[in-house]
C-alpha cells in the first residue's frame, strides 16, 4: 500500500482522502457497506415489484379498468418524482445516512399502511406517499460509491444491484404463495417489513467519509477512515488528513449545468427517462401479456383484450395463475444475468459503450417480442429484453455518481432519479393500457426509445472508466 504524502514544516505529513480509499483497496469494510446498501435496494425492489402483481389482483377484486390499474402504478412514480430532488438536497446538506434512513422509514410506514387501504382512492393516496419515500432509495448507491476505490468501482456498484433482483424475486415468491390464500393485503404488508429491518441495521452504517470531508468535519472523517483501515487490516498513514474542500464548496442544482457538465446533464436526462421507461415497461408488460396466454398452443395475439367496453374488460378480469407467477419469477431472474453481463463488459469497453450496447440489444428483443411464437419462446425473449434493460439501467447508476463531483453527487443522482420517474409515470399507460389494444405499437415504442438512448449514450462527452471521483465542480 502506497500513499502520496505531503510534508509541512516540522516534518509532519499530510494525506488525502483518495490516498486512503485507493491505497487500502477493496476489503471487508466495503463488503459491509455494499451489503447494507444492498439490503436497502432489496427492500425497495420488493416494493416496486408489487406494482406488477397487484394490478391483476385488484382489477378483479375492485373491478378496475385498465386506466385505473395503470393509474395505481403511475401514482407511485408520481410520488417519487416529487421527492427525488428534495432527498438529494437533504443528503447533501444533512448527510447520506440521515437521508437514507429517513426515506426508508417513510417508505416502510406508507408501504405497510397500504395494506389497510379501505378503497381505491385511499390506496392511490397512500401509494403516492410511499413513492415519496422510495425516491430516497438511490442514496444507497451514493454512500456505497463514496467508499469505493477507483479500481473495480463499477463492478462493485453493479454487484449491489443484485440485491434489487433478489428483492424483486422475493416479492414474486411471496405473492405466489400468499396472494391466493391470504390475499393482497398480507402480500403488501409482508413486503414492507424488510424496510423496517434495514432502518434498524443502519445503526452500524457509517456516514459517507466524503460527505464528512466536504462538511469540514475532520475529526469524524478521520474516525471513519480509521475504522476503514482497521476492518481492512491496514495501518493509517502518518500525519493529518488534508481537507481540500470546505463548507462553501457545497453545490446546488444549477452546478449540474456548469459549462463542463451541461451536455452530460442534458443527455443523462434522456438516458435516465428511457432507462426507467424501458425497465418498468418490461416489469409491467410481462404480467399483462401472460394474462392473455392461458395455453401454450402458439396462438398469436394482437392485444390482451380483443374487444368490449371498458366495463366488460373490468368485469372479465384474469388473476395470475401459478404458471403466470412462475414465468414472472423466471423473467424477474433475468436481472441477474443482465447484471453479470454488465460486469463483464463495463470495465473492458467503458461505461458509454456498455450503455449503448445494452440499450441496442434491449431494443432488438423488445421489437421481436410480438412476433408469433409459443409461450416458451416468448418468455425467453422477454427474459432477454429485461436482462438488457436491467443492465443499461444499472450502468446509468454507475456512470452518474462517477461523472459528478462530491459537492453535487447526491443532488445529481436525486435529480436524474426524478427525471427517470417521468418516464416511469408514462410507461404504465403503454404497458397496461396501450398494450391492451395494440401490442405491436406498444413494444415498438419501447424499441424506438431504446435506440434513442443508445445514441445519447454514444454522445456523452466523458468516459469515467478509471477516473478518480472529484470533490467539487470546476
What is this structure, in a nutshell?
By secondary structure, the protein is an all-alpha fold.
Protein described:
There is one protein chain. By secondary structure, the protein is mainly α. It is 71% helix and 1% strand. It has helices spanning 17-24, 28-61, 66-94, 96-114, 120-134, 139-145, 153-159, 162-178, 184-201, 209-214, 218-232, 262-291, 310-315, 322-332, 335-349, 351-368, 375-403, 406-437, 439-459, and strands spanning 6-7, 13-15, 240-241. Strands 1-2-3 form a 3-stranded mixed β-sheet. A hairpin with a 5-residue loop joins strand 1 (6-7) and strand 2 (13-15). Helix 2 runs antiparallel to helix 6, helix 12 (262-291) runs antiparallel to helix 17 and helix 16 runs antiparallel to helix 17. The chain is globular, with a radius of gyration of 23 Å. Mean pLDDT is 79; it is low at 1-11, 294-298 and 306-316.
**Rounded average pLDDT:** 79
Report the biggest beta sheet as strand number plus sense, adding barrel if it closes.
Answer: 3 strands, mixed
Number of strands: 3
Q: Write the element-wise H/E pattern from the N-terminal end onward.
A: EEHHHHHHHHHHHEHHHHHHHH
Fold blueprint:
Blueprint: E1 6-7, E2 13-15, H1 17-24, H2 28-61, H3 66-94, H4 96-114, H5 120-134, H6 139-145, H7 153-159, H8 162-178, H9 184-201, H10 209-214, H11 218-232, E3 240-241, H12 262-291, H13 310-315, H14 322-332, H15 335-349, H16 351-368, H17 375-403, H18 406-437, H19 439-459
Parallel strand pairs: 2-3
Antiparallel strand pairs: 1-2
Amino acid at each position: 500500500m502506497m500513499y502520496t504524502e505531503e510534508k509541512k514544516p516540522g516534518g509532519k505529513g499530510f494525506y488525502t482522502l483518495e490516498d486512503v480509499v485507493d491505497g487500502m483497496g477493496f476489503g471487508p469494510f466495503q463488503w459491509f457497506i455494499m451489503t447494507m446498501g444492498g439490503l436497502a435496494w432489496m427492500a425497495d425492489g420488493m416494493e416496486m415489484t408489487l406494482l406488477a402483481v397487484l394490478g391483476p389482483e385488484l382489477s378483479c377484486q375492485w373491478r378496475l379498468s385498465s386506466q385505473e390499474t395503470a393509474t395505481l402504478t403511475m401514482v407511485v412514480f408520481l410520488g417519487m418524482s416529487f421527492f427525488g430532488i428534495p432527498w438529494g438536497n437533504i443528503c447533501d446538506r444533512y448527510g447520506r445516512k440521515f437521508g437514507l434512513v429517513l426515506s426508508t422509514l417513510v417508505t416502510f410506514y406508507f408501504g405497510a399502511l397500504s395494506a389497510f387501504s379501505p378503497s381505491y382512492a385511499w390506496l392511490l393516496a397512500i401509494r403516492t406517499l410511499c413513492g415519496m419515500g422510495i425516491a430516497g432509495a438511490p442514496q444507497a448507491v451514493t454512500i456505497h460509491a463514496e467508499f469505493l476505490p477507483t479500481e473495480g468501482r463499477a463492478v462493485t456498484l453493479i454487484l449491489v444491484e443484485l440485491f434489487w433482483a433478489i428483492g424483486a424475486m422475493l416479492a414474486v415468491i411471496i405473492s405466489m404463495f400468499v396472494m391466493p390464500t391470504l390475499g393482497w393485503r398480507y402480500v403488501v404488508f409482508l413486503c414492507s417489513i424488510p424496510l423496517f429491518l434495514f432502518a434498524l441495521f443502519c445503526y452500524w452504517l457509517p456516514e459517507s467519509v466524503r460527505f464528512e470531508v466536504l462538511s469540514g468535519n475532520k475529526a469524524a472523517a478521520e474516525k471513519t477512515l480509521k475504522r476503514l483501515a482497521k476492518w481492512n487490516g491496514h495501518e493509517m498513514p502518518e500525519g493529518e488528513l488534508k481537507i481540500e474542500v470546505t463548507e462553501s464548496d457545497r453545490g446546488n442544482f444549477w452546478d449540474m449545468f456548469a459549462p463542463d457538465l451541461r451536455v452530460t446533464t442534458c443527455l443523462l436526462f434522456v438516458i435516465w427517462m428511457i432507462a426507467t421507461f424501458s425497465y418498468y415497461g418490461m416489469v409491467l408488460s410481462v404480467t399483462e401479456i401472460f394474462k392473455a396466454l392461458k395455453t401454450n398452443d402458439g396462438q398469436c395475439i394482437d392485444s390482451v383484450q380483443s374487444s368490449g367496453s371498458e366495463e366488460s374488460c373490468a368485469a372479465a378480469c384474469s388473476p395470475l395463475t401459478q404458471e403466470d407467477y412462475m414465468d414472472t419469477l423466471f423473467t424477474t431472474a433475468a436481472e441477474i444475468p443482465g447484471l453479470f453481463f454488465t460486469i463483464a463488459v463495463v470495465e473492458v469497453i467503458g461505461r458509454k459503450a456498455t450503455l449503448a450496447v445494452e440499450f441496442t440489444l434491449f431494443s432488438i428483443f423488445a421489437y421481436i417480442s410480438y412476433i408469433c411464437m409459443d409461450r416458451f419462446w416468448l418468455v425467453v425473449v422477454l427474459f432477454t429484453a429485461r436482462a438488457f434493460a436491467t443492465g443499461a439501467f444499472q450502468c446509468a447508476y454507475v456512470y452518474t455518481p462517477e461523472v459528478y463531483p462530491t459537492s453535487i453527487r447526491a443532488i445529481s443522482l436525486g435529480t436524474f432519479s426524478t427525471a427517470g420517474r417521468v418516464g416511469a409515470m408514462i410507461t404504465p399507460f403503454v404497458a397496461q393500457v396501450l398494450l391492451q389494444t395494440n401490442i405491436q405499437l406498444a413494444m415498438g415504442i419501447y424499441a424506438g426509445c431504446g435506440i434513442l438512448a443508445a445514441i445519447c449514450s454514444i454522445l456523452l462527452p466523458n468516459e469515467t472508466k478509471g477516473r478518480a471521483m472529484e470533490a467539487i465542480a470546476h
